[in-house]
Amino acid sequence: MFTVSNIxxxxxxxxxxxxxxxxxxxxxxxxxxxxxxxxALADMWGIETSVVEIADQVLPGIISANVAQMVQHxxxxxxxxxxxxxxxxxxxxxxxxxxxITDKRSLEADMVIMxxxxxxxxxxxxxxxxxxxPSGAIIVDKRLQSSDPDIYAGGDCVQIxxxxxxxxxxxxxxxxxxxxxxxxxxxxxxxxxxFAGAVGSFVIKLFDISVASSGLxxxxxxxxxxxxxxxxxxxxxxxxxxxxxxxxYLELVVEKGTGRVLGIQGVGNTGDGMLARIxxxxxxxxxxxxxxxxxxxxxxxxxxxxxxxxxxxxLANTAENILAGMNRAIEAEQFVEWWKNRKEGExxxxxxxxxxxxxxxxxxxPDHWKNIPQDxxxxxxxxxxxxxxxxxxxxxxxxxxxxxxxxxxxxxxxTYNVQGGxxxxxxYGADL
Amino acid sequence: MFTVSNIxxxxxxxxxxxxxxxxxxxxxxxxxxxxxxxxALADMWGIETSVVEIADQVLPGIISANVAQMVQHxxxxxxxxxxxxxxxxxxxxxxxxxxxITDKRSLEADMVIMxxxxxxxxxxxxxxxxxxxPSGAIIVDKRLQSSDPDIYAGGDCVQIxxxxxxxxxxxxxxxxxxxxxxxxxxxxxxxxxxFAGAVGSFVIKLFDISVASSGLxxxxxxxxxxxxxxxxxxxxxxxxxxxxxxxxYLELVVEKGTGRVLGIQGVGNTGDGMLARIxxxxxxxxxxxxxxxxxxxxxxxxxxxxxxxxxxxxLANTAENILAGMNRAIEAEQFVEWWKNRKEGExxxxxxxxxxxxxxxxxxxPDHWKNIPQDxxxxxxxxxxxxxxxxxxxxxxxxxxxxxxxxxxxxxxxTYNVQGGxxxxxxYGADL
Lengths: 432, 432
Description:
The structure is a homodimer.
Chain A: E1 2-3, H1 7-18, E2 24-28, H2 32-44, E3 48-53, H3 65-77, E4 81-84, E5 88-93, E6 97-102, E7 106-108, E8 111-114, H4 123-127, E9 138-139, E10 158-161, E11 168-169, H5 174-188, E12 201-206, E13 209-215, H6 218-223, E14 228-236, E15 247-255, E16 261-268, H7 273-284, H8 291-295, H9 311-323, E17 329-330, H10 332-340, E18 347-351, H11 355-364, E19 369-371, E20 389-393, H12 398-409, E21 415-418, H13 421-428
């Protein structure tokens, strides 16, 4: 049984594995460290790996349930067994671990990795009489000075301000610690450096995807009292006509009314295209940007690197359309629920793509999957029922939004645009 | 003879080439379009390609002379012949072009590409009586409304505000036009959308490198009246211990006194790592950031994507050290000049790396290349002359800065740290 807290643990983990002692491993905790360990165990060492997480999703508090499901689907594709919403009750074994017993099952294990979170190591500070937060983090001001003016603190032991919420936060990250070190050094030498706080930026690689975020997820934003909504867009990371390109999946969290941008998150491939977008939003979050700031964000453009209308611009435009009530959007989760209950006949599923894309689905689900290409919708309006809720899909959610506007004009308003379209549903792992 | 202004020209260019009519091509103008055409001609079609540019560097007004020389060195490696500071006087030929005559030479050509810049196509606007700038761009307000309230304008025909200088600017870019289109559409429908202006963001791919910028170059900043200085850093784009990584070369332009950040530019590989850094700075330039904002910029961190102290953070720290007078830095150009005159004996060239790196240079230049590893400097201080100017080099400029601090303490102050170190000099094409 190991933690991942220092190099000795890492050396011991590697030794056990390379001596062939580990066929099955259980990771407890699906935060960043837990998932990175799961990837290393499964991908690098070919170990049969399970992850148990007490919350209902991976990376709880960091990414939305929507994006988390995309990560979970990818872990499944990579044959990592994931058990969310499960509590570990005990670990059995004698000289070695043998079983991890949760409230729902027993998992065999030759190795257990405990990665259930980090707590500030502040015993020394407490003994020194420094002011601590209720969770034990050292309270510092912007100059990183503790309650004792002769003592400065930084890194995993301090509490700093969340610059989005304005409330105290805790960010045990090597990158924070590094930057705080410079601020402390400057101030010890009588300088006037400040570390204002953090917006909470995050990226990890998991097998073939990157997962990244900055600021608040939709669930965290609501928990923090914001009246928030999210927009989700799937778009190529560079010009659609450029030979090498890949889809990028981004969710923007905005406050209703003010249009203030509260956070962003998403998944992409393992290149730096995802980082490029999160970097831009991470950089401006402390300035309290609104949707218009992202809509007009002036990212460098040329076809090998981006689109004339970058995915970030499109994401903000989509958020604006949602806030304006023009785009009545649903997420994959809602679509999947309606689709599961399709036999009840409450929802009319309308595929707005051309027959080439839509045909196979119509043939597979002749009773439930209807195809009217968006550009034929006006003349074929009689085929659209007026007594049902309508779920609109296309490749990525753009044409289905156009279709929604057309249906609106024709007086059909109980329509819902599936954000991210079929590309998003596929990434989500929807069973279609 | 072609321009690159519409699809018909592109089709005609391609037709001529694919019919085998073009063995040699001359591109006039080394702006973005000219260089992209040079790459396409040389790389995709294997044509012997020359570029003639009237300014002293490629991409004039966009990137600094320092970064431009790195681009020029790469073009040379790729066998593109580049003639900067040359003026085309005439083009000779009859049914086809035959020669391009500059003020310095005659270049054979089966094809000439004119890429000398863009002027606003505003005849219609002039005829309609709209207010135009001296250079013919349509003057619009933030709502993109022209001097006739019933007429809005956007794209390559309008003048907008440069958000760094506050002065009028001209940005004929597809990405601008796209975003302005939405603003105009919203306002035509009685909305209140604004397009505040541009900071000037740029990226292109040239063979194996990306070149990108946002805001002002050091030369442009000075021309605009800023008392500016630049810092140059070479660092890995991700954690130094991560298996796949590459160097990234960045220059930050800052105002003395205020520490205000005016611009950034650099070169990297053709991945998106460069874009990720420029995106972050491009996003915040309109908020008038200072060095401290970049020093503490909270970019997402994990080893496959970035360093704990990202190259942007390090770049700002270096700029801070330069402004504080702690880091007396020189650029490659200055080093190259001193190195050319090394036999005059005015400069002592001190390599602060270990013998493994420094040895080959000492052996090649026994009379002029001295090696004292930085960690041996204190005890070997007697080997450092006190009557010469000292140029300090290491791999990337970090250890040579440490050496400079040590020499300072020992009373040796006529020292100059070569920013970017040997990595920067190599990229610059210094003859060593």
